[in-house]
Design a protein that fits this description.
The complex is a heterodimer. By secondary structure, chain A is mainly beta. Chain A is built from one helix and 17 strands. Classes of the chains: A mainly beta, B mainly beta.
């Protein structure tokens, strides 16, 4: 048996990464009017403590009522006309807008899902070239990549669909992550809309400096409902 | 997988050892190489593992003294070799990991030693050069050419042995500092005490430089870097010597090294080393000398996650080694050397199959130094190595011959077999390189063998010294990453395997000329090297992960030393180096190697440096350095471009007390 010093003497200097939580998360994100919130930190703590690792998804409605106050950071409903029967989504015009209260959210969350849209809680995302989470190396293989943060958007979070046949859709103006949103792209034409699925692994850097790996495995439920997401995850990396 | 044949040549650049010794004698107004033999008496140990004078050693040895280190104001070994050794080039590999090429040999074939002990740890095949700080260094001995018969694996291209200073004054204190651009600053401190039966030397270095951006022109033809990563280095070394009797000397050493690189400011990389050693030197009799030593060296790499305050280790290399060395001097001056080493090598690497690996190695060697007559001397050596992983073993010979027909003319001939066992990394690596390919270890690797031939002539006349050396080296079964491949048509994951190349060759010539006139000294060093990279049938060239050596390199230096009084002296040195252009075949697109290779032209460049040092009262030193005097900026910062972003002015201050 080797002496302790044979394998080194610095062990006490270093830390161990928390035991990662990993598996699949199922989220029915098909609703037009709700955001679904996921807290990966809480999930990992439960795993580390040996507790039951049931994934808790909290759901909050998108606020629709108009308010008087309006500022640059306001969320709101922006109604666009899209040329859905012609050139498609790329041709659009803003027809009306009004502010709403801020999007309600839990006290702690990491990711929020609305159909094919995703938000991070102050995080940023890098799309890897990998198709398996196991292909990710240690931190040195991804920390120097270009991570993309959330940006304001007023055309993609489709919320109000009652005048859709006229090409008019009410969108929630809110910050979303366009990089992570690449995992499920919506295109018009054709009609009905086509979803394009991207099976690459995405690395999310959260505001506390921790990293998670996510991969969209499926977006259709057994009953053929679109945006019913099956997400493979590992946290922390 | 295809095989490659590689032939290698190695070089030994003996540059002006006589002149450099002479520079220590600043007061010699009318120096004459012919008449002054003191500097030729400088004792060196690396070439034969026995103390021999520089003039008398049959193994061509280049010596860099503490005065040379002070003169070039080097912070670490990288600083020093760039300025002192033509043919030595430091470039980048991967994410700005430093790679050394000396006359076609890289880090796995150039063995770095500190007081004769190996160093743990490597990155992209090279030791951590920042670790080899120059504070407290007595001298550096450079033996180019195969030295495996004395030093074993990894010495096929040469040995660079850093000898630390042993205190001789009752006490001494030295502090110095230097400031330059990019918020660079360096502080050195050395404190020594020397008593009748014991002495102690404590050396500490702190240096820091910030990250800085560099600008590239449009449309680079290969990979460039846009930011030079700085670092923060802390190094503390202590050496304790006890002399209980005239015949016995016990030496203990402790060292700690820490470096932090803010490649990603939120997650800086950290490198640590802890070393310790004990050595006993016993003069059994006038003719018998015994050394026993134990050395411990641990080199770690980690990432500090600032937000979570977690320091996560990904690499650790721990070496424990025991050595015995015995020398017997015969009455006619012949010397017999017997020795052996046992080493345990532990490697933890998250990129390694199995994460942890251990290997034991054992060697024994013998050498006979035969003084045939007053003109001829021959040294022969034989060594046996055994490595437990894969049960590899090998016997390797070495032969050196010195012929001195006149006192100012020496002819040296040498042959050495080089040997390198595959490392644990090369056998068990499994690393996904940023999605380009998976670097794949190869358990079936054979050891690398090389044959090195060299011949040199050294001639001294009056104020001038001339050295010419030629060398040829061939390498069989050179270990390298080979050609990327797909395991199957369906699997689009590329693999880059380690393999044994068929052939590799390198040959070249080193020339040095030195002269000294009154208070002026001049020297010129030139190195020519030609690498013959291996070819194979199905691609035009293997994937050489490093840029080849530049064929031509030139170093020059003109110095002026003038004492105006006992309290004031001035030295001014103008030095520079030029490296020629080099071509290399590389993949057009590393993410799509099916696009094939293209030839990349790496342009030539030259850099100049002007340094003025004023010495006051023999206690204080004030220096002003202008590095990159002509404000050279590369158009493209390719991986072998100099890291300069223009003229850099540095100011230094040093104080000596004793």
């Amino acid at each position: 048996m080797a002496l302790a010093s044979c394998n080194g003497v610095f062990d006490g200097v270093y830390d161990e990464l928390p035991t990662p939580a990993e598996g699949d998360i199922y989220i029915d994100a098909s609703s037009w009017t709700k955001w679904h919130y996921l807290d990966l930190h809480a999930l990992q703590e439960a795993v580390a403590n040996g507790q039951k690792t049931e994934v808790v998804i909290q759901t909050f409605d998108i606020p629709m009522e108009e308010i008087a106050d309006y500022d640059a950071d306001s969320t709101g409903i922006y109604t666009y006309w899209y040329d859905v029967f012609g050139e498609g989504l790329s041709k659009r015009e803003l027809r009306s807008k009004y502010p709403t209260i801020r999007q309600p959210e839990p006290s702690q969350w990491d990711l929020a899902f609305h159909r094919n849209n995703v938000r991070t809680n102050g995080g940023a995302v890098w799309q890897t070239p990998f198709t398996y989470i196991s292909q990710l190396g240690d931190h040195s293989t991804f920390v120097t990549q270009s991570f993309v943060g959330d940006t304001w958007n007023e055309t993609d979070v489709w919320t109000v669909q009652d005048r859709m046949l006229q090409g008019l859709v009410g969108n929630q103006r809110i910050k979303i992550n366009s990089e992570l949103g690449k995992w499920l792209r919506l295109d018009i034409p054709p009609m009905p809309p086509a979803f394009t699925y991207n099976g690459n692994v995405f690395v999310v850097r959260f505001s506390d400096g921790t990293y998670a790996a996510l991969r969209l495995k499926n977006y259709i439920s057994p009953s053929n409902v679109k945006c019913h997401m099956t997400i493979e995850y590992k946290y922390p990396l | 997988m295809s095989e490659f044949v590689k032939i290698n040549i190695i070089s030994i650049a003996l540059l002006c050892s006589v002149t450099m010794q002479a520079r220590q004698k600043a007061d010699d107004r009318f120096y004459d190489f012919d008449k002054d033999t003191v500097e030729l008496g400088q004792v060196v140990v690396t070439g034969t593992r026995t103390p021999k004078t520089l003039a008398a050693t049959p193994v061509p040895t280049r010596i860099v003294t503490s005065k040379d280190i002070e003169r070039v104001d080097a912070t670490d070994i990288q600083d020093l070799l760039k300025q002192e050794l033509p043919g030595a080039e430091f470039s980048y590999a991967m994410n700005q990991q430093t790679h050394l090429n000396i006359s076609g040999f890289g880090g796995q074939s150039i063995l770095f030693l500190v007081d004769g002990e190996r160093l743990a740890g490597e990155t992209m095949d090279d030791v951590d050069f920042n670790r080899l700080t120059m504070a407290g260094v007595e001298r550096i001995e450079i033996v180019k050419g195969a030295a495996s018969a004395l030093y074993g694996s990894n010495a096929g291209g040469g040995v660079i042995n850093i000898i630390t200073h042993e205190s001789s004054k009752p006490w001494s204190l030295h502090v110095d500092s230097r400031w330059g651009s990019h918020h660079s600053h360096r502080y050195n401190g050395m404190f020594s005490v020397n008593k009748k039966h014991w002495s102690n030397s404590l050396t500490a270095t702190y240096s820091q430089i910030d990250n800085y951006h560099v600008s590239n022109a449009d449309n680079p033809i290969t990979r460039v870097y846009h930011e030079v990563y700085g670092n923060k280095v802390i190094s503390v070394k202590d050496q304790f010597v006890v002399r209980p009797t005239e015949q016995l000397k016990l030496k203990g050493k402790l060292g700690y090294y820490f470096r932090q690189v803010p490649r990603v400011p939120s997650e800086p990389e950290r490198y640590r080393d802890f070393s310790a050693g004990l050595k006993a030197e016993w003069e059994m009799s006038r003719n018998d000398h015994v050394e026993l030593s134990y050395a411990f060296d641990q080199y770690d790499k980690s990432t500090f996650l600032k937000a979570q305050s977690l320091d996560i280790r990904s690499y650790s290399n721990v070496q424990n080694s025991v050595r015995a060395l015995y020398n017997h001097s015969f009455s006619n001056g012949d010397i017999l050397t017997l020795g052996g080493d046992v080493m345990r090598d532990y490697l933890l690497n998250t990129k390694l199959m199995g994460t942890e690996r251990t290997q034991q190695s054992v060697d024994v060697f013998t050498q006979f130094d035969w003084n045939i007559n007053s003109k001829w001397e021959m040294v022969t050596a034989l060594r046996y190595d055994y490595f437990s992983d894969g049960h590899l073993s090998r016997i390797i010979p070495k032969l050196s011959l010195r012929y001195q027909p006149k006192c100012n003319l020496s002819v040296r001939l040498g042959y050495g077999m080089g040997f390198r066992a595959p490392t644990l990394k090369e056998k068990y690596y499994e690393f996904d390189m940023a999605g380009i390919w998976i670097v794949e270890g190869n358990e079936q690797l054979k050891p690398e063998l090389s044959h090195n031939f060299n011949a040199s002539v050294e001639y001294t006349k009056g104020r001038y010294n001339l050295m010419v050396m030629g060398y040829y080296n061939s390498v069989k079964d050179k270990i390298s990453t080979g050609i990327p491949y797909y395991r199957s048509k369906e699997n689009k994951q590329l693999y880059l395997p380690y393999g044994n190349m068929d052939s590799y060759a390198v040959y070249g010539v080193d020339v040095s000329v030195c002269g000294r006139w009154d208070i002026i000294t001049a020297k010129l060093g030139y190195a020519y090297v030609k690498e013959q990279l291996p070819k194979s049938g199905d691609v035009s060239s293997v994937n050489n992960q490093y840029i080849p050596a530049r064929p031509h390199s030139l170093n020059w230096e003109v110095g002026l030393d003038k004492s105006f009084s006992n309290d004031y002296s001035l030295s001014v040195t103008l030095s520079g180096r030029m490296l020629s252009a080099v071509e290399n075949k590389e993949y057009r697109d590393y993410y799509d190697v099916s696009q094939g290779t293209i030839s990349i032209h790496y342009p030539a460049y030259s850099l100049w440096k002007l340094m003025a040092v004023q010495r006051l009262w023999n206690k204080a030193k004030l220096s002003l350095t202008i590095d990159n005097l002509f404000n050279y900026k590369p158009d493209y910062y390719y991986f072998n471009a100099p890291t300069t972003d223009g003229l850099n002015m540095m100011v230094g201050l040093g104080i000596d007390l004793d």
